[in-house]
Amino acid sequence: MAPPPRGAGVVAGPVPKHAQLRAILVRAITTDLAPDAPIPSERELVEAYRVSRMTVREAIGQLVNEGLLYRVHGKGTFVAPAAVQSQLHLASFSDDMRRRGHEPSSRVLAADLRTPPPAVARALELPAGVRAVHVERLRLADGVPMAHEVTHYPEHLVPGLLELDLSGSTYDLLAARYGLAPTTGEQALTAESAARPVAALLGTVAGAPLLLFDRTTRAGDVVVEHTTSRYRADRYSVRMSLDRTADRVPAPPTPRSPT
Length: 259
Fold this sequence. Notes:
It contains seven helices and ten strands. It is of the alpha+beta class. The strands form three sheets. A six-stranded antiparallel beta sheet has the order 4-5-6-9-8-7. Strands 1-2 form a two-stranded antiparallel ribbon. A two-stranded parallel sheet has the order 3-10. α1 packs across α3 and α2 (42-49) packs across α3 (53-65).
């Protein structure tokens, strides 16, 4: 991003200066700068556009919150890579990433038997106190942390699962080894701020926005897993198709005039 003429593009008027500067930076991000490229420092932007440091910080802060920029403490502010987009559908993380043109991988952080939290036990339709297979993984796309994932499986359905390689698609394992190919699922999507331990795993800062997916999956009528996934909101987005026609009530027929 070459330094512009002093004051160019930012003028006094009805549009706030921070909004004008934000628009200038967006154009540079989308047309001139590559992912992970640095943007000019606050001092350079102040001098180039003859605006206050507060104006610069407000414009940059908005773009960081929107996921277009990211900060590295002590180094500066950089262009964020484009977010991976996902259409809502039932698919493993591995399949989802490959469909988006990325190479998936996983790092298994924990794999053991433990008593799941009450809400997870209810989702798995397990009696209170019954243990489940617990698997915690860091999910990566092209080697970059994308999500932190915690999954529970009913122990009686997946004997020997802990002895297998869990770094790939467990949906494939469920289908091939146990005859439990996932067929349907229920999923809730909410937002939360990254706690410090999760932020460290995902390579972001505490308080960064995350997309939280809570999913229960079935193979036919049998509940086979419950998964909680926390995705970096600046690296992952969700697309949904919307259609009003499914619930639209047909209009009543127009009365005919008597003849």
